[in-house]
């Protein structure tokens, strides 16, 4: 269902494992194929192994077992300075004793390019990140966003095969972060380099990536394009980690090719998409996104229905969150746009909430995530 | 200092007593050194102020003892020796101390505390013990009584100062800079010279200056290790005090004070520069 690169993938992780103490695996059997020019994000809570994978690719951590292939060449025993991989560090890591120009020229100087070529390249990349006027300054004299742009230019200027970004926008405020996301996407489209991007910010991952690999406890839970990840999460962890999910417990009653019917704890019967829970009689959790839940009067009789009592509402601005509780005690959240359609409800008022079968999935309850 | 408005009589008394005693301590420390300076310009071969000096008679002052120093081949040799031994042992101590500090700053370094203590021990162990130990050890190797032995011994004494100052600049060093340089293609040696060295340079230089001062005014090890050819300024002063007692010792002491002040000022200027550089590193 995803546009995965085949055997001739540009970058391949094959059965990569990593342990620091020879007891617990930080990364347990990581496999990933990346096509040239792809923007891949490694997403997960802190300590899930995503940064370790990035560090192994950069060559700062050894691979315990498995292979990392770039263009068919195994790089696991190649020194970091011979890998030709660009990297944007979390805290920028600009050399404080060099001017912006000297920072940008550094990788080219190491590669022994002729002086005038270096000068031309530096000016070109200064222009690319719109910092022509700042070339003579020191990193300490720039703002956070400007320093981030310099770090980006320095990682790109030697035309590396792959560019790694380790939470590059973590130190910026929200507005600047959105601006920089746009900037990175623009450069990616313009120059066509391959990106491996690490973040714990799901919005960032969803807006920027071609594909996202969701990590938890050293295991990739799902690797898919953003819309697949959001609309068809492979398991409970992904459903919970990416966005919000309403969870309705029940038991599988019948199974067809694409759908399953689930008897909810309240007694109602609903139809959902088939996921990782396919045995009749198996306990399951029906997962529905809050914005896919509707007040019945709008959806009509189509789709599934569940009755719930109104508890409270939270005013968020562009939308309103309504909190409900079902008879069996499950909490439900409905996100409704803050427009004329937003209903006025009184406390304990019973409402029928509805959703389309293709907007929900029956997921295995045992895979409830272990957040840490 | 501004005196707070709530101060009563006893507060005031305490305040002034503290001020007075602070000044007294300062005088106690500095007076014996300062008194040497005017005495070195004594026209007479005495170690006390003559009547003429006290009445500020220009005739009572002269550069006689300075001339004497620069005309005496023994003093000339001592001055040359002091700089030769000082500079070579400083270079050695700086290289060794910097390498040690960088190694000790690494997390994966085993027995870090133990090794640090061992390397700093020449600073803590009484000098006479170190000197005696060195004498017996170096004698067996045939190094006692030669330049090499003295230089090695002084390098050992100076290394701890370099370790301390370089370690201080390395705490808070952003190692992602080293990683960034590696990532950009620099070999570890280039990373050291292009990135680490420029950033720890203030610590290296002030450590080197401390190492130089240590060698420059060291006399105990010299007494044990040096032959007549390796006599340094302090060693020459030491024998001068016993053999030919005249104010030329005071003249050379004054010169030493000047050298020390110059070095301390340099260290202070470096420290300020380092702080300014750090200011550039962490703005906003």
From TrEMBL, chain A:
**Catalytic activities:** ATP + H2O + polyamine-[polyamine-binding protein]Side 1 = ADP + phosphate + polyamineSide 2 + [polyamine-binding protein]Side 1
List the EC numbers from the record: 7.6.2.11
What Gene Ontology terms describe where this protein resides (cellular component)? ATP-binding cassette (ABC) transporter complex
Keywords on this record?
A: ATP-binding, Cell membrane, Membrane, Nucleotide-binding, Translocase, Transport
ABC transporter domain: which residues?
11-242
The molecular function terms of the Gene Ontology recorded here are: ABC-type polyamine transporter activity; ATP binding; ATP hydrolysis activity
The kind of enzyme this is, by top-level EC class, is translocase
Q: Which domain of life is it from?
A: Bacteria
Q: Which InterPro entries match?
A: AAA+_ATPase, ABC_SmlMolc_Importer, ABC_transporter-like_ATP-bd, ABC_transporter-like_CS, Mo/tungstate-bd_C_term_dom, P-loop_NTPase, PotA-like, Transp-assoc_OB_typ2
Chain segments annotated as transmembrane: none
SMART domains in UniProt: AAA (SM00382)
Similarity field: Belongs to the ABC transporter superfamily. Spermidine/putrescine importer (TC 3.A.1.11.1) family.
Name the job this protein performs.
Part of the ABC transporter complex PotABCD involved in spermidine/putrescine import. Responsible for energy coupling to the transport system.
- Subunit structure comment from the entry: The complex is composed of two ATP-binding proteins (PotA), two transmembrane proteins (PotB and PotC) and a solute-binding protein (PotD).
Q: What is this protein called?
A: Spermidine/putrescine import ATP-binding protein PotA
From TrEMBL, chain B:
Record keywords: Cell inner membrane, Cell membrane, Membrane, Transmembrane, Transmembrane helix, Transport
GO cellular component entries: plasma membrane
**Ranges of residues in domain ABC transmembrane type-1:** 79-267
Q: Where are the transmembrane segments?
A: 21-41, 83-105, 117-138, 144-170, 204-227, 247-270
Give the record's GO biological process terms.
transmembrane transport
UniProt key word Transmembrane? yes
Q: Which family does it belong to?
A: Belongs to the binding-protein-dependent transport system permease family.
Q: Where does this chain mainly localize?
A: membrane
This protein's record includes keyword RNA-binding = no
This protein is called Polyamine ABC transporter permease
Membrane association type: Multi-pass membrane protein
Q: Which Pfam families match?
A: BPD_transp_1
């Amino acid at each position: 269902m995803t546009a995965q690169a085949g055997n001739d993938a540009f970058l391949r992780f094959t059965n990569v494992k990593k342990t620091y103490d020879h007891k617990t695996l930080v990364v347990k059997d990581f496999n990933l194929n990346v096509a040239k020019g792809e923007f891949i994000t490694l997403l997960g809570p802190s300590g899930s192994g995503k940064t370790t994978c990035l560090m192994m690719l950069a060559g700062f951590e050894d691979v315990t077992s498995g292979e990392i292939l770039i263009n068919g060449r195994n790089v696991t025993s190649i020194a970091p300075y011979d890998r030709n991989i660009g990297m944007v560090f979390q805290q920028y890591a600009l050399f404080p004793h060099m001017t912006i120009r000297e920072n940008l020229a550094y990788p080219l100087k190491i590669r022994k390019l002729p002086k005038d070529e270096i000068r031309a390249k530096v000016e070109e990349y200064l222009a690319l990140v719109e910092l022509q006027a700042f070339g003579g300054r020191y990193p300490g004299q720039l703002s956070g966003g400007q320093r981030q742009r310099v770090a980006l230019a320095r990682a790109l200027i030697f035309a590396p095969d792959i560019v790694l970004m380790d939470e590059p926008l973590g130190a910026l405020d929200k507005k600047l972060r959105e601006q920089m996301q746009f900037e990175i996407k623009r450069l990616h489209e313009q120059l066509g380099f391959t990106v491996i991007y690490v973040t714990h910010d799901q919005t960032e991952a969803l807006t920027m990536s071609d594909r996202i690999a969701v990590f938890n406890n050293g295991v990739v839970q799902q690797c898919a394009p953003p819309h697949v990840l959001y609309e068809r999460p492979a398991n409970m962890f992904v459903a919970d980690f990416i966005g919000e999910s309403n969870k309705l417990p029940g038991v599988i009653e019948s199974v067809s090719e694409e759908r399953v019917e689930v008897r909810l704890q309240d007694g109602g019967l609903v139809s959902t998409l088939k996921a990782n829970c396919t045995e009749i009689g198996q306990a399951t959790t029906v997962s529905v996104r809050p914005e896919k839940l509707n007040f019945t009067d709008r959806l009509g009789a189509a789709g599934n229905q569940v009755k719930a009592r109104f508890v409270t509402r939270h005013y968020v601005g562009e939308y309103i969150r309504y909190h409900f509780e079902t008879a069996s005690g499950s909490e439900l959240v409905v996100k409704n746009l803050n427009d004329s359609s937003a209903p006025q409800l009184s406390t304990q008022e019973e409402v029928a909430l509805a959703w389309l079968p293709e907007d929900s999935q029956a997921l295995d309850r045992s895979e409830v995530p272990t957040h840490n | 200092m501004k005196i707070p408005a709530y101060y009563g009589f006893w507060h005031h008394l305490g305040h002034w007593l503290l001020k007075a005693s602070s000044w007294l301590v300062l005088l106690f420390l500095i007076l014996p050194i300062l008194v040497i300076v005017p005495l070195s310009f004594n026209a007479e071969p005495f170690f006390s102020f003559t009547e003429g000096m006290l009445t500020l008679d220009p005739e009572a002052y002269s550069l006689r003892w300075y001339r004497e120093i620069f005309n005496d081949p023994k003093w000339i040799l001592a001055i040359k020796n002091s700089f030769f031994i000082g500079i070579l042992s400083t270079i050695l101590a700086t290289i060794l101390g910097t390498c040690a500090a960088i190694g000790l700053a690494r997390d994966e370094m085993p027995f870090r505390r133990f090794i640090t203590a061992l390397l700093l021990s020449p600073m803590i162990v009484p000098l006479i013990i170190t000197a005696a130990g060195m004498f017996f050890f170096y004698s067996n190797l045939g190094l006692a009584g030669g330049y090499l032995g003295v230089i090695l011994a002084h390098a050992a004494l100076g290394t701890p100062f370099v370790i301390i100052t370089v370690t201080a600049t390395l705490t808070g060093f952003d190692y992602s800079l080293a990683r960034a340089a590696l990532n950009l293609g620099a070999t570890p040696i280039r990373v050291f010279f292009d990135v680490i060295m420029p950033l720890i340079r203030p610590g290296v230089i002030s450590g080197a200056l401390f190492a130089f001062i240590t060698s420059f005014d060291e006399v105990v090890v010299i007494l044990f290790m040096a032959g007549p050819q390796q006599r340094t300024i302090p060693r020459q002063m030491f024998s001068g005090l016993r053999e030919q007692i005249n104010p030329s010792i005071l003249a050379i002491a004054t010169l030493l004070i000047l050298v020390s002040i110059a070095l301390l000022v340099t260290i202070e200027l470096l420290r300020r520069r380092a702080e300014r550089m750090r200011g550039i590193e962490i703005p906003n």
